[in-house]
Each structure stands twice: as C-alpha cells, then as structure tokens.
Inverse folding.
C-alpha cells in the first residue's frame, strides 16, 4: 500500500532559493532591452534571453504591496524569470484594471482605475527587482461598455469583443487608447513607463483572438455590414473573378469558409496586426511584439509572419469536473512538442505562452520535465505555465494561512502543487541554465499555398502526420517554412508521413539526452548537470543512466538530480534531489478510474512518498543527505554510503520528503 505525507508550501516563501545561480540576471533590465536575433532573443549587451515563467491571472495581478514583494521573491527562489500578466482586463475579476471593487456600475472602459493601477505598477516593480521580466497582454477579456461609444455594444462578446476587435475601426482605436494609457504612463515605483522599461520583455496585441477560431460569429450589426463592405473592397483587387452582388449574404459563421474568404480573413488579420504594431512602435515600445498568443491554423500562422515572435498554447487533459486522466508518457504522439512545431517559423523565436497538464490529472508531475526538456531541445525561447494564481488575497487564496494548510481550489492554480510547481527548481535549471542541449539536426516542413489556404485546415491546426508521428519533434529540431521561403533539399511536406520508429514503442533524441518509451510509460533525461527518470515503474525496476542508477519500489514517480554548485553531478558539492509523483487534497474522492471528481477534499495538500534506491557516481566522498521540509529546514539525515566512487541511498524510508539536499 502506498504511503502519503503532507507537504504544504508557504504562499510567501520557498523551501530553497536557486536565484543566486542566476544573480547576473538581477534585476530585470540590467542587460538592456530585449530584441530578436534570428530564432532567439538577445538583450542589447548580447546576453541571450531565455525565460522560464508563469502566468499571473486576473485579480492576482493586483496584490497588496507587501504581498507583491513576497510573491516576487518566492517566484525568483523557484527559478522563475518571467511573468505573463494575463486577464487583468476581465470584468469578472475583482479587482480588474478598470474597476478595483464591485458595487458601482462600470459604464466605460476608457479609464484605468487609480487603485488598481497603483497595485499593478507595484507588482511590476516587485517582479523586476527580483530579475523577473514582464510579458504583457493588451486585449484579453475587456468587456466594452455603453459609454465606450460603440454601437450595439451589448451584442459584442464580453471576451474582448472577439472577433470584431480584429476589424472594427472604432474598437481598434479603443485598443490603441488603452495601450497608450497602460504602456505610456509613468510607473511611480520604477520611474519609467512600460514602453521605456527594459524590464518589459514581450508584448502581445491580443489573446486567443482572430478571424479563424472564434465561437462568436460575425452577425451583429452594424459590424457585419462593415466586414461585408470590407470584403467587397478587398475582392475587387484580390479576387476580381468573384462576383459580389449587392445582396451578397456570405455566412460569416461558417467554420469552413471557401478559399477566397480564408484569404480575405488572412489579410484582415494581418492588417490588424500591422496597425497595432505601428501604433505601439509610435508610442515608444521597443521590445518584441507578437499579434496573438496562439497560432491555431496555418492561415493564422501566415498572418503572423511579420511579427517579432510567435506563441503557442499547449495543454494536455483540460480537466474540468470530469476528464480523461490520461498519462501523457503513454501517448504515441508527442503533445508538448507537436503543437508548437506546427507554428515555429524560420528565424523567429517561439514562446510557449501557456502550457499545462491540470489537476486532478494524476500524472501531471511528468509535465514540467517534458516541457522544460522539450523547450531546451527545440531551442524555444520561453515557457510559461498557466497559471500561478487567480486571486489577490493572501489570507484567503494566496496560501497557507488557513488552518491546516491550503488545498487545491482551481484546476489551473499551481502555486501550492508539489506535482507541478514542486518540480520548478529542476525544470528551470534544465531550461534556463542550458543543462539540456539543443537538437543537433533540424527537420524542415515546407508549406505550399494549398496548405496555408486549405479551406478545411486553415481554420485549425493542420493535420501534419510527420509531426504527429512525434519522431520529428522528439528526435530533431523542427520548423515550418511558409511559401516563398527557401527550403533545403531534404525538406518534407506537411502530409508526408515522415520516418517511422523501428519498433514503434520508443524514441531517443539525436543528442542522446532525452528518451521516452510510450509502451511502458517511462522516460528519462540524462545530462551532465541534470538527470531525471519519470513514469510508472515495476517493483524493482532499474533505470541506468550515465553515472547514476535508479531502482524503484514500483508505481508512478519522477526523480531528478540537479547540481546546485555548478559542477557536473559527479563533482558537485551540492545536489538537489526532487522526488514527486501523485499529489492531491486531503480527503479528495474520485470514481474508480479517477476520471470523475466526486469531492474536492480540503487542505493540506498531500503527496505520495517516492520510495526507491539511487546509486550515483561521485568524486566527493564527504557528503550527507538531508530531508528538507517546507520551511527549508533539515528534518533529518537520510542514511547513505560511499564506496568505490559511488554514493548509494534509499529515498522514502527515512524522513520522506519531496526535496533532499546532498551536501558537503
């Protein structure tokens, strides 16, 4: 029978602090403004920009000043150097950028609430002080109001007026006005506007908002007529063979428009990005800008080709109250690499704007390791977990001031989750420090016009068997080339099947550092400074890596060795061992297959103790192994032996924890 124990993270502190390993990056902005350089980000002084981050959502963007300082310090301690501020324009959130508290009617969104703005400004100051860069969304959930002077305003979607906000001139002008207010005012705590602040790293014009992927059809007048007239004008130049009679009644609700309309949508979308880009540059924004925080569909990707970078949102098992509880490691396709590989363009950085494998999926502890190793292997520039927090109150929602410790409350919140946030130390080092090497070879997928403007696939992610076979993104670096770009002789098309695995059960990266066996549901990461094994293991199963061997008592586990003293693990004088598997609320109840949640349970959060033996090569004989509690204190020494250049110890029997320090 498995053994469970409590591990309650503090909302305002961390058990360990790895921020000194990145001291040369503190404070944010010390290396100048961020810029793009081919497929990467660099700062003005030539320092490469790589970001391991989280999202802070809605009301959590407006904490009290004292809470902002503590949250920023905690994030830095866990290895975070980017925060994407998200959903702060949402009316359903309290506070939001337009209204600090409910109770009075909000009649206009053309004014930023002074108290909200003060807290927002201070949070940015607190984050930057700790070396954490800002990724800013401009239009997410803004609900336009009657005094915003828009016709038929209540017919517009409350979620950013999607997709009307991409083509209606009056709504675009309101977006410009808002961007000027938000990015142009002087932050009293930094002494700079965001437009002139090198601590601001990235800007996105809008979030998940385009002409191709919206559930909100263009039916509201006078906006449908505006789009129709825009189409008539466009067609005279771009589709003169298309007859558009005065009573032309194209159904803008169609999910599969013909190629002509798809090309029209493409140009509408690109015009929107060009307009907003020009305005943002005119008010002094210097850092890289993208148009959208997803790239769903090849037509949208084409419309984004003139932006500074592209984004991808990647999720696995978006569990609400019921779900599938699938184990990603056992999938024949590779999800975290597959989707971004469809939008990664030549000479353009790619940022994972959102990723998650949400609670209560039992196997979610796999995800930080898969995401960080895949991002490093592919050479992506940033990875952002959705999400850290939704609410701003420290006492109620930011952590363990509740008697017995706080539990899970929202599927996406991670600040208290040992199974995801608990792996941030290891994952950050793999990605930011470059422990995992970039792929040696690149596979190029060449697109033709028929692929980009395919009436079936242009509105969603195009079916690319060579990517979905997974070997191209787990074995090699992958990118797409749009029509008109030069392509190498060995480029393949999007529908080519690509190479097949010899035995159809496993894949090894071309660097020999990453491995996954989907038949057994196991994987490993094997580098000089980081080693990790993860998956579901048989009792007594041994996993040999270079200079280390892991033997498990059975069950689901992730175990990672991370050098904290800078040397390779063999010579390291301080090593963090992270051992995490399943975690949940106390008293949580599910159906037998764990696909339906019957009761959420309550705090404190508990974890399943990982039991197993580690044998690792070491040139440092005088070391002791300590169990670490949530306060960062030693709870006890775990017995270990050293003989013939190898150290051996057993986890889980004595002083079980999710963190252990092996130290001189």
């Amino acid at each position: 029978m498995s053994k469970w124990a409590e591990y309650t993270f503090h909302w305002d502190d961390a058990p360990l602090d790895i921020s000194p390993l990145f001291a040369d990056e503190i404070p944010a902005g010390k290396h100048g403004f961020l810029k793009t350089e081919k497929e990467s980000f660099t700062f003005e002084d030539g320092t490469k920009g790589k970001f391991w981050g989280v999202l802070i959502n809605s009301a959590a963007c407006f904490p009290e000043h004292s809470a902002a300082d503590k949250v920023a310090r905690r994030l830095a301690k866990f290895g975070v150097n980017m925060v994407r501020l998200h959903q702060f324009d949402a009316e359903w959130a309290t506070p939001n950028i337009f209204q600090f508290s409910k109770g009075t009617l909000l009649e206009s969104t053309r004014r930023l609430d002074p108290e909200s703005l003060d807290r927002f400004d201070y949070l940015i100051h607190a984050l930057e002080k700790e070396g954490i860069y800002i990724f800013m969304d401009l239009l997410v959930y803004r609900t336009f109001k009657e005094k915003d002077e828009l016709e038929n305003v209540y017919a517009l979607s409350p979620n950013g007026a999607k997709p009307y906000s991409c083509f209606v001139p009056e709504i675009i002008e309101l977006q410009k006005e808002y961007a000027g207010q938000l990015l142009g005012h002087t932050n009293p705590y930094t002494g700079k506007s965001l437009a002139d602040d090198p601590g601001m790293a990235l800007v996105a014009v809008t979030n998940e908002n385009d002409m191709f992927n919206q559930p909100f059809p263009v039916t509201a007048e006078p906006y449908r007529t505006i789009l129709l007239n825009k189409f008539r004008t466009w067609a005279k130049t771009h589709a003169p063979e298309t007859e558009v009679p005065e009573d032309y009644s194209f159904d803008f609700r169609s999910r599969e428009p013909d190629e002509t309309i798809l090309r029209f949508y493409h140009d509408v979308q690109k015009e929107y990005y060009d307009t907003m880009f020009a305005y943002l540059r005119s008010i002094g924004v210097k850092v890289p800008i993208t148009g959208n925080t997803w790239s769903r569909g090849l037509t949208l990707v084409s419309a984004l080709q003139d932006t500074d970078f592209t984004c991808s949102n990647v999720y696995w098992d978006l569990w609400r109250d019921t779900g599938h509880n699938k184990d990603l490691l056992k999938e024949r396709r590779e999800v975290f690499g597959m989707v971004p590989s469809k939008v990664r363009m030549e000479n353009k950085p790619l940022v994972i704007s959102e990723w998650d494998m949400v609670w209560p999926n039992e196997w979610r502890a796999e995800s930080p390791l898969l995401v960080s190793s895949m991002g490093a292997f592919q050479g992506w520039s940033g990875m952002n977990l959705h999400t850290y927090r939704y609410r701003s109150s420290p006492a109620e929602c930011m952590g363990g001031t509740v008697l017995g410790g706080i539990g899970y409350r929202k599927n996406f919140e991670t600040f208290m989750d040992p199974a995801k946030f608990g792996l941030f130390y290891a994952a950050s080092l793999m990605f930011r420090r470059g422990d995992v090497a970039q792929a040696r070879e690149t596979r190029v997928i060449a697109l033709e016009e028929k692929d980009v403007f395919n009436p079936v696939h242009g509105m969603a992610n195009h079916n690319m068997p060579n990517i979905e076979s997974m070997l191209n993104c787990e074995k090699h670096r992958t990118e797409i080339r749009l029509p008109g770009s030069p392509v190498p002789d060995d480029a393949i098309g999007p529908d080519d099947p690509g190479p097949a695995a010899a035995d159809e059960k496993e894949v090894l990266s071309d660097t020999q550092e990453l491995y996954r066996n989907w038949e057994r549901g196991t994987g490993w990461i094997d580098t000089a400074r980081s080693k990790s094994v993860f998956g579901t293991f048989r009792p007594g199963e041994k996993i040999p890596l270079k200079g280390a061997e892991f033997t498990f008592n059975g069950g689901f586990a992730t175990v990672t060795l991370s050098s904290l003293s800078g040397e390779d693990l063999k010579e390291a004088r301080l090593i963090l061992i992270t051992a995490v598997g399943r975690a949940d609320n106390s008293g949580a109840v599910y159906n037998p297959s764990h696909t339906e949640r019957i009761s959420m349970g309550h705090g404190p959060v508990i974890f399943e103790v990982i039991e197993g033996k580690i044998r690792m090569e070491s040139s440092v004989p005088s070391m002791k192994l300590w169990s670490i509690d949530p306060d960062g204190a030693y709870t006890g020494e775990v017995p270990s032996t050293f003989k013939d250049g190898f150290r051996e110890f057993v986890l889980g029997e004595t002083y079980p924890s999710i963190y252990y320090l092996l130290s001189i």
